[in-house]
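Sample entry was shown:
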Amino acid sequence: MNTGTAFATLCVAIVHSSDGIHLVTTGPEDAAFAEVGDYVRCRAEHQLWPDDAARLMTLLEQGRVRDAVDLYFARVGDRWDREYLAVHPVDTGSDR
């Protein structure tokens, strides 16, 4: 039954590492990526080589959050422990 109500697609983003899950965030896609952006901002200096961390910070300053997140997960593990990001869309359609 379609009531004319708009339903949003939500996103679940999970940061995994060998020692467990480091972050779980949900919300509209941009909000979820913003939280992952905050996560990589806090961890970059310790997890990435200095040049990569500096590039990541520049991307964040330019508002290029997704590029920064992509860079972090492409480079994390080169210096210390590997991490990976899993992003799952969740359809909140009206069929439920």
